[in-house]
Each structure stands twice: as C-alpha cells, then as structure tokens.
Amino acid sequence: MQQSIRSRGFSWLKFLIILVILGSAAYAWQQHQAKRQEADSAQQYITEKVRRGDLSYLVNASGKVYPQKIVQVGAQVSGEIAQLHVEIGDTVKAGDVIAEIDARSQENAKSTAEAQLNSQQAALARAQSTLTQAQQAYNRANNLYKQGAGSKEAQENALASLNSAKNAVIEAQANIRQSELTIANANLNLGYTQVRAPIDGTVIAVAVEEGQSVNAVQSSPTIVTLARTDVMTIKAEIAEADIAVMKVGLPVKVVLLGKNSQSYQGVLSAIDPAPKEISDNGSISSSSAIYYYGHIDVDNAEGFLRYGMTATIAIEVDKAEDALLIPMTAIEYAPNGEARVSVLVNAQAEKRHIEVGLEDGVQAQVLSGLQEGEAVIVSHGGASPHSPMGPRIF
C-alpha cells in the first residue's frame, strides 16, 4: 500500500517537472517569436534618429568678380605721350606719375601768358601815370574856372580827360587779372602733362604707347585703367523668388570656379533696386527670368581674386544652432500646410504632428513634436500597402 502511494507521488512529480519544462519552452518560444516579429516589423522601415546640430538657410547664386573701384585715367591736355611709367599689373599710389605728355605747347602757352602779363602791367603803369597827369590838369582847370580866370569848356575838357584816364586804369587792371588767370590756367595745363594716379590701385589696362598723340579737345582719352583690388566686389544674380529675404549685412560664403576647396567670407553690402537687365541695358524683357544684383565685398589681401572670375555664392539668410534635426524626406505635408512624421515606437509607425522651422533642402529643424533620439521613418523599405504606416499623402 505504501509502495503504491509512493509510486503515484513520484508519477505526479514527474508530471509537474515535465509540465514546467514544457511551459518554459513555450514561453521561450513565444518570446523568440515576439522578438522575431518585432525585428521583422522594424525591418519594414528605414529610420533616422532625431539629432541635434546646426542648420543654415542658404540662398545660392552665381556671379562675377569685379574690383571694388575702377577708374579710367585720362589725359586732360592734348599732346604726344613722351613717357609711360607703368605697365599692366603695376601697383601705384595716389599721386604717382603714370605718364608724361610733351609739355612744350603748354610751356609756350605759359610763356605767352607771362609776356602778356608783363605788357599789361606796363600798360597799367602808363595808365596810372596818365591818370595822375589828368588829375593835375583837372585840378588846375577847375581852380581857374572857380576863380573866373578859366573857361567852363576848359574845365569840362579836363574832367573828361580825367574820367577817361580813370577808365583806362580800370581796364588795365582788368587786363592784368585776365592775364593772371591765363597764367594760372597755363600752369594747370602744364601740370596736366604729368598724368597722375587718382587712387591707390593696380594697372589693369594700358590704352596708349609712347609716341602716340592724344587729343583732349573732343573727349578725354584714356591712358590707363586702375582698379582697387585689395577688396573685390562680386555681383551675384539673386533670383526674384529669393530677393524678398535678402538684406544688407548678411554673411556670404564665396567659392571660386575651379578652385577646389578655397572659399572666402564676405558680406552682402548692397542690393540693386531694379532687375539686372535694367542695370545692364536700361530695359527689361518680360520673357526672361528676373534676377537682381547683390553686391558682396570680399577681402582680397592675398590677391587670389581676379577681375572677371566666376564665383558661386551661398548667402546665409538664417541659422539655427543646436537644433533638433530630421531628414526632410521624413516629413509629410497636408494640403493645409500642416507637417507630420511617422515615428517608430515598439515596431509600430506612430503618426506625429510637428512644427517645422528652417529647411535647407536636405534637413529640417523641428521646433516641437519630437524628442532627441526618437526614430523617424524616412522610407517604407519592404512594408506592404496594408502596413500600419499607411499612405504617404494625407
């Protein structure tokens, strides 16, 4: 009897052990299947983590490099180029002599004016002497007339001679002033025979040669062209769609065509009020795209920037630092402009409305609706049309 009871107890114990083993195995299998299902579900989507970083809103443009200032230095007197003191590429300071024009004609004009002045001064001396004599003659005639010893006619003739002598002195003095002005102009023209640089700059063009005659009567002939190249200006073509967000003072990054990684920092210094067609030609075509010139000053102390180079420009309109960032491909926009994303939570796609800040075409700033580290879905991968993700457009 006792043996039978012990036998039955042992059988129940074996049964319980087997039951525990089977239950553990079933639980382990269920956990494995759940994890596998979760992994399979997660593999249906391609995700990106919400991260922190800096984002800039940039407007891209292209343009040409120009010297900040260009001056055409011309001749103000006619004559032959006697000496040319500069060549293309030379650096000059304001006041340096660039060229000399044969000054013989101007020297002769000055000598003639000086001779005229001497003659006018002699004429003034004679007129003053005549005036003194006329004054004395009038005094005598007037006294005699008052004393009754002279005639009225003699007194009047003496007065007329006195007035004539005074006018002669005035005329001689005017002639002297005219001669002095003529000499001053002669000195000015003589100075113009030395053509001087009006600004500090670099010679970028020489239009004449020694021995060539220049005629300043009809127009001011150009001798050389000077450019200030320590600071260059880039004229960037800014599209009509972007001009509304432009303002003077925005920082700019400039990259030269063909100069791999070399970039320059500048500032948007001016924006033309009219389209570039009007700036260039004075008219506008209704059939062409509208662009406005933005002027960007760039330091060129090393001289790498040259007149006429092509540059690509990135104007930084706005910037967000340490912002929450997600790929723009993760964002869905409703017709009313609302933005939302799908966030992967426990292997399921969860719709989330977000507020978007800056965009750069690749990334977008998230102002609200997401936390750093969350996984946003950027692609369905192998998801079926009936997956929890749903359609892209809502």
Automatic annotation (TrEMBL):
Record GO cellular component, one term: efflux pump complex
Subcellular location: Cell envelope
Primary subcellular site in the record, as a coarse category: other
Entries under InterPro entries matching the protein: MdtA-like_BSH (IPR058625), MdtA-like_C (IPR058627), RND_pump_MFP (IPR006143)
Residue stretches spanning the membrane: 12-29
Pfam families attached to this UniProt entry: BSH_RND, RND-MFP_C
Gene3D superfamilies: 2.40.30.170, 2.40.50.100, 6.20.50.140
Ranges for domain Multidrug resistance protein MdtA-like C-terminal permuted SH3: 322-380
Coiled-coil residue windows: 103-189
UniProt entry tagged with the keyword Transmembrane helix: yes
MF (Gene Ontology): efflux transmembrane transporter activity
Keywords carried by this UniProt record: Coiled coil, Membrane, Transmembrane, Transmembrane helix, Transport
Keyword Acyltransferase: no
Family membership: Belongs to the membrane fusion protein (MFP) (TC 8.A.1) family.
Name under which the protein is recorded: Macrolide-specific efflux protein macA
Species of provenance: Suttonella indologenes
Encoding gene (name): macA
